[in-house]
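User: For my dataset I need records formatted as: sequence, then structure tokens, nothing else. Please produce one.
Assistant:
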Amino acid sequence: MSVFVPQPDLQTFFTDFLPEWVISDMIKDIRVATVIFNSLAGQTDHNLNKMVLWTSMAKKEGADIVCFPEMNVTGYVLDNEIKTTAEPVPGPATEKLLHISATHDIVILAGMAEKDAKGRIFATHLVVKPDGISNAYRKLHIAPPERSVLSPGGRVLLFHTHGVKFGIQLCYDAHFPELSTFMALKGAELLFIPHASPRGTPEEKYASWTRHLPARAYDNSMFVVACNQTGDNGKGFSFPGIAVMFDPSGNEIRKNISGQEGIMIADLKAKDLTKVRNHQMRFFLPNRRPELLKNIPDTISRNEVKGEG
């Protein structure tokens, strides 16, 4: 039986910065696995069956969490076909994910196209624990090419497992630095950024990611773990498969830019987080001046996007 916890009300993080922030240190090291995954669009059962192999491999390597790319369960498409492949949460796919998580006793972060009761489609990432689904993150920032089919989520969520508090952002979300800062102020120590980012070579995608992902780690003193789909998805999209991890100083821990399916595993050390957050010159968040930001103007938008409500 799945357990789905209702999401809290939207925090207006763009204009209402917290007068007080919450910082908590990781209580222990955590071993994280991230998967570069070839997801076939519209072939949910096939994708779920492949996830069993990678999840088993992650568990054998001692990982506490295994993170899959954005929309890896249902596949990534931007046409009307997504309406037939999208599923409710909870639903058939989530039940299978719960079984995989329970069988291997590991936390799974998995992406899918979610359809809600109003028929809206969200790019959703699930946090699946052996004892149930703790919640689901809906992508907040929808890239312009996605707006004809995807609706934006409206809630900023954090999750907790194995002594670490973490956030999730999906692909385009990572280009909005205030979101990462908000998550850090709420206590996030680790940020997962699963992608379904097509086009280019692995080397080109790596060059693109290393322009902004290390900054999310460095500015907010948090670990960042990112992965992408890879290969042809059978519906017109081809993805350069890469994965990267950064420490709270913005230094690269590991990378895989092979363009091939694979798993990357690393130990995220609690001492690395503590070292930065105990340094008066390297931990920037306590020195913010939120009173200067209370009257930030709304961003000018070329396109109106109706959100979750």
